[in-house]
Amino acid sequence: MVRALIPSIAVTAGLLASAPPAAADESALLELQPQFAFLTTQQILREGYWACRAARSGMGSSQIVPMVQEHLEYSGASLAVANKIVSTAIVHLDC
Q1: Are 5 and 61 in contact (CB under 8 A)?
Q2: What's the domain of life for this entry (predicted)?
Q3: If pLDDT is split at 50, 70 and 90, which confidence band does 25 have?
Q4: How far is CA 58 from CA 53, 87, 95, in A?
Q5: Contact between 61 and 86 (Cβ < 8 Å)
């Protein structure tokens, strides 16, 4: 009985391992644009995905937020704006 289950368990495990990751929810990130009208949607998405990559590489938000603010320095983004972009990206882009 147990021997009969082993192949089906192996197939199921293989299917789960090869399943595509959940889709990123860019719409949640883009909902920030009306609040931060001085930033383009491209800037918000670029920084959101950058924050995601940084988080995946092991950086903490205390390091990522100031860097995002620096990237958006000429747009007039404050630390609070950078923090909102980073936190929204990490939650909704499946970092």
Answers
A1: no
A2: Bacteria
A3: confident
A4: 9, 15, 11
A5: yes
Q: State whether the Cα torsion 62-63-68-74 is positive or negative.
A: positive
Contact (Cβ atoms closer than 8 angstroms) between residue 28 and residue 87: no
Tokens coding 84:
């909102």
> SS in 3 state form for the chain?
CHHHHHHHHHHHHHHHHCCCCCCCCHHHHHCCCCCCCCCCHHHHHHHHHHHHHHHHCCCCHHHHHHHHHHHCHHHCCCHHHHHHHHHHHHHHCCC
Residue type, 40: T
> In this structure, which amino acid lies at residue 44?
I
For tokens 């983004």, the residue is: 77
Q: What is the pTM of this model?
A: 0.73
